[in-house]
């Protein structure tokens, strides 16, 4: 009996050691909580994007009120980086080394996510649903532990614009206003994919820095190129300026607008609603202001969510829709991970999403990932601004 008791004690000790080791591997996880972190531009020139983080915080407040995920509450620690990459690095180090988060979720910005990727890979911290459409983050050879967000990649979006401009509009010259970083360069790469050797003859480019006060001079220079198509690959402040300036100087090319700047309140109204009439962009999420969705269950649920959990949020700002989609996708991954919230299993579940339908994505657009596919969304639909709202046209397109 004494030997049997000793054996039982040894087995119990071994089990405790195993479970303690397993728990230690699950950084940021306790019996009652999962800590996740992100950085957002709550200040600075791109603070308009802060609505994304506010929506995600609100979503997980709802999740927690309903009991959490697999019995654990979600603690989302969202820090301000002002859209400045060195500050993103500083805040991310704090999240990993002080707050000990289980993963980084939906940090915003291309240069920002690029600045922290190698650090997070070295620390074995998942970098999930990045709030950037830069195609580089879908390149597994460069970013094996990153996963793009619930948005179509910029480069694929630009390919659709190029094909439409050339094949449907017969464009001969294309002017591009591009942010001077990987965000802007992705749009140029998409145009080059389609135009190939004709790129240099067809495309005129003017770039800007996010620290510049205005891009009026760039727009004037681009008008002088004689372009019949103008692609605005810009973030909200500069997109609004470009829209307003083209209107003021009487330049009337067909305008395409990056879908990161389609916001009615922070872009179109700032530019002047009349100035934006006819602009073409792309959509992959439902617009709650579109009468098409007045009876849609997903939109009704979103409006109820906004009324209760983000009552001060602007329902015209689709960043709140995007944040809702991003957070819902992460909820799916964490639910699938179950009790094993190790980085390895979180990655495994993030890279095995099959035909996930989110209620605020356009019908027919589904989220899919695989170990060799870290780009969850690849489909879009064209839309045109009518002076009051965006109207979708054509079929759902798969950009490739």
From TrEMBL:
Q: Which SUPFAM superfamilies match?
A: Periplasmic binding protein-like I
Q: Does the keyword Membrane apply?
A: no
Note the InterPro entries from the entry. Answer: Leu-bd (IPR028081), Peripla_BP_I (IPR028082)
Q: Name one Pfam family in it.
A: Peripla_BP_6
Q: Give the matching CDD domains.
A: PBP1_ABC_ligand_binding-like
Recorded family membership? Belongs to the leucine-binding protein family.
UniProt-recorded name of the protein: Branched-chain amino acid ABC transporter substrate-binding protein
This protein's species is Bradyrhizobium valentinum
């Amino acid at each position: 009996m004494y030997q049997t008791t000793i054996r039982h004690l040894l087995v119990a000790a071994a089990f405790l050691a195993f479970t303690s080791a397993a728990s230690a591997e699950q950084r940021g996880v306790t019996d009652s909580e999962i800590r996740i972190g992100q950085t957002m531009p709550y200040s600075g020139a791109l603070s308009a994007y802060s609505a994304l983080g506010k929506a995600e915080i609100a979503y997980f407040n709802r999740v927690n009120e309903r009991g959490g995920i697999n019995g654990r509450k979600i603690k989302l620690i969202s820090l301000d980086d002002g859209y400045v990459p060195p500050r993103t690095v500083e805040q991310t180090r704090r999240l990993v080394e002080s707050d000990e988060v289980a993963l980084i979720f939906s940090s915003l910005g291309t240069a920002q996510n690029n600045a922290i990727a190698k650090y997070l890979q070295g620390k074995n911290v998942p970098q999930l649903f990045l709030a950037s459409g830069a195609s580089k983050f879908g390149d597994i050879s460069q970013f094996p532990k990153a996963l793009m967000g619930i948005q179509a990649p910029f480069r694929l979006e630009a390919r659709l614009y190029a094909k439409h401009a050339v094949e449907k509009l017969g464009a001969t010259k294309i002017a591009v206003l591009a942010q001077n970083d990987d965000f802007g360069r992705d749009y140029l790469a998409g145009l080059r994919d389609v135009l190939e050797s004709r790129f240099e003859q067809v495309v005129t480019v003017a770039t800007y820095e996010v620290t510049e006060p205005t891009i009026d001079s760039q727009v004037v220079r681009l008008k002088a190129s004689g372009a019949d198509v103008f692609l605005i690959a810009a973030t909200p402040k500069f997109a609004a300026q470009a829209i307003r300036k083209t209107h003021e100087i009487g330049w009337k090319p067909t305008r395409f607008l990056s879908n990161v700047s389609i916001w009615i309140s922070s872009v179109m109204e700032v530019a002047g609603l009349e100035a934006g009439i006819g602009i073409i962009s792309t959509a992959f999420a439902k617009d709650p202001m579109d009468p098409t969705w007045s009876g849609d269950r997903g939109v009704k649920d979103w409006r109820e969510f906004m009324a209760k959990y983000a009552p001060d949020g602007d329902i015209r700002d689709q960043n709140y829709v995007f944040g809702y989609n991003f957070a819902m996708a992460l909820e799916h991954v964490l639910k699938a991970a179950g009790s094993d919230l190790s980085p390895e299993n979180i990655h495994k579940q993030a890279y095995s999403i099959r035909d996930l339908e989110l209620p605020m994505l356009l019908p027919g657009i589904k989220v899919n990932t695989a170990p060799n596919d870290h780009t969850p969304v690849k489909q879009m639909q064209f839309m045109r601004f009518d002076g009051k709202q965006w109207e979708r046209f054509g079929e759902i397109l798969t950009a490739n």
